[in-house]
């Protein structure tokens, strides 16, 4: 893909200077290296896209339309604030206000009683009537933020077969303020940390038929694993598409995910998400009536097609880190336990992209994400409060495992599962229920040295 450097508001020299200043040896860039074999021109576009990803946006009106239009209600000012160097977010510790942790999100949806859930029904993403789809803890001048919260943690102890005790924590929300009144009577929540953006372009180009082939919604082979596609409907014609990204597989492509994040998290209009008020609802009059950064020369949006293309390119062409320690005895022993636990039934190691990628460098590539891109029932303990499209509260997309051992090195934090409750990989395993219960039970029966080797294998992916 060729991008023009004659964009009316992109100061290419300034962006590159900002990029150079933002780089520091104290940060690890393992999640944000360009994919191997990238042509020189696209490497430059990759660097520019990273700078757009990292730049701070400002509320309207401002002196530059290149970064104008933040909010009026928003969660953060930069993509990088949520995904530090493409890394995963973390959950607030007790007594910390949620608004101070931009990588932790509170999503809203409409509750459906379990007895009424239907696997054939596609539930629309309605959010809350007043607060929209996500709590926005920050605001521009003249607009009141939506509120704030703190988390408390309930701790339970899990005893392993050899007597080892592991403490597991489960978060619950305590509202400090809800500035537009109470949530709707039927509104429920999902607590989410920002996911790592690793190998996204590769995942985007797994052929649909591969994902469908791995699905087994009726568990026809009777192995207890019944992966389902999240069928996403986002247009008035009711067209169904396979969800790929997000913890519930609610975004159908990198492009869709990025533009939704621009709009919901930063309050920016894009070619696909055209509301300049972002996630504001009609009940938030000051927000809707505030000045915005829509500009004619940007195609009447705030984050225009050129900036979106650059961010899409950066996210799509960021390479997954290479597996490490492949010849170590502990790695090979750990892989044996991974296989015996049947983890690969959902965390499928090997995939191949198709031949119609936006970026030809991604065509026909073999890669190792350790995911099937499908929804699985993970048990009541991990359930969210509401269904979304085809995904029921208990169901989550299989998380890719590549690069999981580098999380702390990249973003300075650990925090696994959708809400960051698990402080270690071991805790994440012990939270597995539902279809993964047998794998969790297998892990609990292992001896200490065997568990260490399995964790070593996972940390090496």
From TrEMBL:
UniProt-listed Gene3D superfamilies: Cytochrome c-like domain
Membrane-spanning intervals of the chain: none
Domain Cytochrome c: 329-461
The UniProt record lists the keyword Iron: yes
Keyword Iron included in the entry's annotation: yes
Domain of life per record: Bacteria
UniProt entry keywords in alphabetical sequence: Heme, Iron, Metal-binding
Pfam families reported in the protein's UniProt record: DHOR
Name of the protein in its database record: C-type cytochrome
Organism whose genome encodes this protein: Marinomonas sargassi
